Amino acid sequence: RGEDSVIAGIEERIAEWTHVPPENGEPMQILRYVDGQKYDAHWDWFDDPVHHAAYLTEGNRYATVLLYLSEVEGGGETNLPLADPIDAAAQVIEAPSECAAHMGISVKPHKGDALLFFDMDIAGAKGDRKALHASCPTLKGMKWTATKWLHNKSYMGRFDPLRQAGRCEDEAPDCAARVAAGGCTTDMDALIGRGGVCRKSCDDCVSCPSGDILCARRNMRSLVRERAAGLGREGAGVGAGPGAAPGTGVH
Fold first, then answer.
1. Which of 93, 118, 129, 245 is the most exposed place for a label (fewest CB within 10 A)?
2. Average pLDDT over residues 116-141
3. Residue 240: predicted pLDDT
4. Residues 15 and 139 in one domain
């Protein structure tokens, strides 16, 4: 989630469309289907004991957004067999595969299109059984999709790449002593950066408000290393003309 500016931009547009904030979304999932591959009918919301504890704190899957990334020559429709068409005549697709022709609503994949459906009732309290859906067999060509699941609560689960990489905290009990001994610059690999155990004490990151993806993304960089690199560039150029030896011209 928010891995780069392109994905963050897509997630912001999805939030505007769905009225569900970006911090409620799971990381995007990319899927590829070829040679008759399919995904049988299922619901995206959970009602089983295995997921019970997780969705009490991070919400259930409230809405699903499917982004179609490729043209498909045959098959590959998204079928919602229990859904009621709003306009049956307008929602008929051309040359449907056998899977898509039976019942409910089917959507033919076209590159650049997106499909949104809500998995739960408007209050987010109960799963909507009419949100049952399947990916029909891809009969010809290749189907690429990106799936974005949106929760009815803020989602910062174990699959979020920013949860660990973007954190700003100390993980070692002796950070004060190690910082006082100059460890932030002499023991960089251990104390700072993504795996650093004293990032907060070394002033290697900033504390981010909950759900601030842009702030967390900045913390994936090392502020200490950036400052050191900046000072190095400034020092190398002070008073030195082109071709001057390092240090010459510095008074």
1. 245
2. 94
3. 32
4. yes
Residues 139 and 42 both lie in one domain: yes
Are residues 165 and 143 part of one domain? no
DSSP structure class, residue 25: B
Same-domain status, 54 and 118: yes
Is pLDDT above 60 for 23? yes
User: Which one-letter DSSP state was computed for residue 187?
Assistant: S
What is the domain range of residue 87? 5-151
Q: At 50, phi and psi to the nearest 5?
A: -60, -40
Across the strands, what pairs with 170? 198
Q: Considering only CA atoms, which of 84, 54, 76, 65 is closest in space to residue 10? A: 65
Same domain, 64 and 135: yes
pTM of the model: 0.63
Q: Label the pairing between strands 29-33 and 114-118.
A: unpaired
Contacts 24+ apart (CB under 8 A), 183-190: 184/224, 185/224, 185/228, 188/222, 188/224, 188/225
Phi, psi values for residue 150, rounded to 5° = -115, 130
Question: Do 107 and 25 belong to one domain?
Answer: yes
pLDDT tens, position by position, 226-240: 888 875 443 333 333
For residues 29 and 134, state if they share a domain. yes
- Domain assignment of residue 156, yes or no: no
Q: Distance (Å, rounded) from C-alpha 100 to C-alpha 107?
A: 8
In a domain, 75, yes or no: yes
- Is it the case that residue 119 has pLDDT exceeding 90? yes
C-alpha to C-alpha distance for 153 and 162, rounded to whole angstroms: 17
Residue 136 is encoded by which pair of tokens?
A: 């029909």
User: What is the rounded distance in angstroms from the CA atom of residue 60 to the CA atom of residue 19?
Assistant: 16
